[in-house]
Each structure stands twice: as structure tokens, then as C-alpha cells.
Amino acid sequence: MKLVELTEYSFDSKKTGQPFQPFYFSMTPGDVVSISADSADDALNFLMSLATLIRPLQGDYRYKGSMLDFSNYRNLLDIKKNIGFITSHSALISNLTVRENLLLMNAYFTNSFSGQLDLRTQELCKLFSLQEKLELRPAALTAHEYRFAVTIRELAKIPEMLLMEYPEKYIGIATLETLNTVFSDMLGENVCFVFLSEYRHFIETFSKRKLVISKGTLQEINEGSEGPGVGGSEGG
Amino acid sequence: MQTIIGAIGRRTLHLSNRFATLLTFAYQILRTIVFPPKKGMFLVRRITLEQVYFTAVQTLPIIILFAILIGSMIILQFSKFSGQSPLGNIIALILIRDLGPTLTALLIILRSATAVTVEISYMKVFNEMDALEMSGLDPLWVICVPRLVGITSAILSLFIVFDIAAIVGGYGVVWLVTYTNLGDNFFQIANNISAADIVVGIIKAILFGITITVICLYHGFKTKQHITQIPVAASKASVQCLGACLIVSATISALFYL
Questions:
Q1: Residue B42: which of A85, A94, A111 has the nearest Cβ?
Q2: Left if phi > 0, otherwise alpha if psi is -120 to 50, otherwise beta: which for A235?
Q3: What are the C-alpha distances in Å from B144 to residues A141, B134, B210?
Q4: Of the candidates A55, A50, A52, which has an alpha carbon nearest to the alpha carbon of residue A76?
Q5: What is the pLDDT of residue A233?
Q6: The whole model's pTM is what?
Q7: Contacts of A94 (CB under 8 A, 6+ apart)
Q8: Stretch 118-157 of chain B: residues touching chain A, C-beta under 8 Å
Q9: Which B positions 12-41 lie with beta carbon below 8 A of chain A?
Q10: What is the Cα–Cα distance from A72 to A137, expressed in whole angstroms?
């Protein structure tokens, strides 16, 4: 079963205001898609639309076969919580500490706040050397630490789909290399991974399919991939 | 002539549209209170308590000081006319019915409402609302409901504190620093306060709380992607809150006392 399937999908680019050409895009669990784009804004908008943060102008968005209803934001919350979103658009809640930010989702859904991070989050904090910064507010973090905290929060979600914008710039090449095991483990758990990157080594390590976004048009570069597909209209 | 009529028409439509949006927004928040989601009650309670602390507890010293100053001014001035008009009656009229709720609301607008607008605008501009949604949290539930409940209950309790402090404190100050003969005016006030005065005060406080919170949240959420819009939103919200509170106050007074 396809995890996501966008049919005849189009949306307005937030910055340019130009609509994206209607496209078809689908992913099955475990799919890894790398994106290259002539405009970073367009690529971010594409990731945002996959994260259901942008309302479509037209077309259908199916998640695990169910059509998404964009008429009320509440209908999308259950989908959003299963999507890891690590981009320049991601943020921490500024009036909470890093620990509270990391535990926020858990506190909401379990109706309790233990203050204790789970093992996976603790390991990620250790990996990013953020254990000493957990009681600080986001404003007290450096830009790097801030992005690490966002990355930990999104990875700790155990998402079904992970969206990432320029991981090499967002968390830095050195840290990215240490995260390879984390990504490999996640892909082993059939997580869909879509990332925008210019870092050849990362693309070659993980990418199974390649997309190009050019002038508001989405195209797949086919290198013998057996991915579910992308195109101007519904394809396979 | 056509241009003027057209401009008036467009302005009217724009205002009606904004008013309808505000009402819909208020309805959505109130509906969420009546039919709350199952998740997140713990968080909502905690944020509500924080809001009550910021809005009510931290404002207490300021509101008591203001109330004593205003109460003593009114008592001092009107005690001179106590021969012609009973002082208790005047104080009940001015303080309990109108000045108490209105000044409390004004203080909350100056102190907390603008802060709420800035906070929400900031969260909007820096994508924190999207971050909440991406974690599956409902902003209406975890952001709007605690602020509405917190600010409304804060205004209600502060209005009671204001009235008591204005009357008791005001009398105390006048008795301590002047030789004015107050006679049995203190008991006159007690005799002149009717149940309707207290009910009107409570209704006003609740409506002020809802009005102020909804307007502030609306302006906060309306802020787009520019940090320069934050002070504009705060200033618009505070002016509109004051205007709306005065309209609500006048309407309630007219309904009960005319």
C-alpha cells in the first residue's frame, strides 16, 4: 500500500505566488527520494505540501489510501504527527525549555508530564551533545544546537515519513555522517524519506529515486528505479 | 458621489467580514471548551494556570494600588456632596457597576492582552504554530482555550478585588490622611449595592474577558510572516479591545438599568 499518493496535485508557491504545475507523486513505505531544485523555495514548498502545511489548489492527497480533507486543519493533525519535518521552516516553542519541547508531544498524547526523556531521545541527545542544554530555552541555544534540538524532536517521533531540507547544511556534514546509522535504522523500519540535498555522498548512500523541481514542475530522473512514480498526471 | 458610496460600501463590507470572522473565531474557541478534545487536558490545565498566574496573580499589587488611589479620590470628592446625594449610592453607581469592571479590563488590556497578541504573533511569524501542528497538537485547544479561560477568570477575580480594595482601601486612605467626616457612608454603600449590581459586574467581567482574549488572539493569528507586523498587531488589538469593552459595558448597562 502506498503511504502517500498525490494526484493532479498543485499548490501556490508561498514566496513566488506561482502555482506548481499539477503533478502525480507517490511513495511506498521505505521509499527514499532525493530532490534537487533550481529554487530552494520551490523545494521547501514541495516538502511543506507533503507535510500538509500548504493547502492544495487542486488535486487529491491520499495518506495510507485515505483521502485527506483540507477543509479543517484538525483533520490533518493525526497525519502531521506521523511526519518528521526538518527544514528551515521548523521551530521549537520558544517559551518552553528544550526538554519540554522534546516531551511536548508525549505530554499531549499521554496526558502526563514525567520530565523523563525516553531512551531513544536520550541517545539522540547524546549523539548531538545536547544533554547539558536540556533545561535551556531555545533562545539560549546556538543556531546549531537549535537545529539539533529540532532534529532530535522530529526523529524521536518515530515518523512514518521524514522530510528534510539540506541535511548537510542543517545539521552539518560531520554530524550527518554520525547520523548515518540512525537513518539506516529508520529506513530499515520502512520510513519514507524525502530530502533536498546537494551532498553527493548522502544522496548516493540513501537515495533510491531522484526528483528534479524546475520552474514549478516536478520530474523524476529515472535511473532504472522501480519507485511508484511521479509525473504530470497520474502514472505508475 | 458614486466613488464615495462605493468606498463606504467596501468599508462596511470589510468591517462586517472582520466582525463575522471574529464571531466565528469566538464560536470555535467556545465550542472547543464545550466539546473538548480527549487529548492534551494536562497541558491545557497547566497553561491555563500559568495564564491565571501571569494575568491575575502578577497584576494583584498593581490593581490594589490603582483601586485604592481611585477609591480614595472618588470618596474624597463625593464626600463633600454627601449632604445632597447619598455617598453610598454614588459609589455603588460608579465603582461597582462601571468603573470596577472597566478599569480592571483596561489594566488587563495594557498588561496582559498586548502580551498575548505579541506572543501569538511571534509564534506565528517564527512558525511555532506549524511546529505545534506538526506534533499533532491543536493550537485552538492548547493556545486559545487556556488564554480565554485564564484571562476571563482573571478579570472576574480582579474586578472583585478592585471593588473591595477601592471601597475599603479608599475609605482607609481618606480616614488616615484627611479630617473629612465620612459619617455612616460606609454602611450606606452596603445598603445601596443590589444583587443586580453584582450580577451586572460579573456579566461584564466575563464578556470583557471573552472580548479581550478573542480580539488579541485574532490579531495574533492574523499576523503573517513579518516581524514588523507584531507591534502593529499589538497596537491594533489593544485599541480594539478598549473600544469593544466600552461598547459591551454601555450595552450591558443600558440593558439592565434603562
A1: A111
A2: beta
A3: 28, 17, 11
A4: A52
A5: 46
A6: 0.88
A7: A137, A138, A139, B122, B123, B126, B128
A8: 119, 122-123, 126-128, 130-138, 142
A9: 39-41
A10: 32
Q: Which residues contact A129 (CB under 8 A, 6 or more apart)?
A: none
More confident residue, B182 or A121: A121
CB contact under 8 A, A108 and B127: no
pLDDT interval class at B182 (50, 70, 90): low
Instruction: Answer yes or no: are the C-beta atoms of B17 and A85 closer than 8 Å.
Output: no
Helices B60-79 and B100-108, axial angle in degrees (round to 10): 150
Cβ–Cβ < 8 Å for B238, B110? yes
Chain A nearest-CA distance from B130, in A, is 7
* Whether A14 contacts A22, CB under 8 Å: no
Rounded average pLDDT over A158-175: 90
What are φ and ψ of residue A33, in 5° steps? -120, 125
Distances (CA, A) of B148 to B59, B61, B144, B236, B253: 17, 22, 6, 19, 23
Please tell me the distance from the alpha carbon of residue B190 to that of residue B66, in angstroms, as a whole number: 22
Inter-chain touch A53–B130, beta carbons under 8 Å? yes
Look up residue B117 and give its amino acid.
Answer: T
Greatest mean pLDDT among A131-135, A197-201, B70-74 lies in A131-135
- State ipTM: 0.89
CB of B113 closer than 8 Å to CB of B238: yes
- Residue from B215, B221, B210, B223 nearest B240 by CA: B215
Which residue in this structure is represented by grid cell 518552553? A96
Tens digit of each residue's pLDDT (9 = 90 or more) over B146-166: 999 999 999 999 999 998 998
What pLDDT digit, counting tens, does each position of B186-203 carry?
Answer: 777 777 788 888 888 889
**Helix (H/G/I), strand (E/B), else coil: B204:** helix
- Rounded Cα distance between A75 and A80, Å, is 10
**Summary mean pLDDT of chain A:** 88
Torsion of CA A45, A47, A53, A58, to 10 degrees: 70
Classified as helix, coil or strand, A76 is: helix
- Tell if the CB–CB gap between A111 and B46 is shorter than 8 Å: no
Contact A115, A99 (CB under 8 A): yes
Count of C-beta atoms within a 10 Å radius of residue B55: 27
**Residue B2 CA to chain centroid, in angstroms?**
41
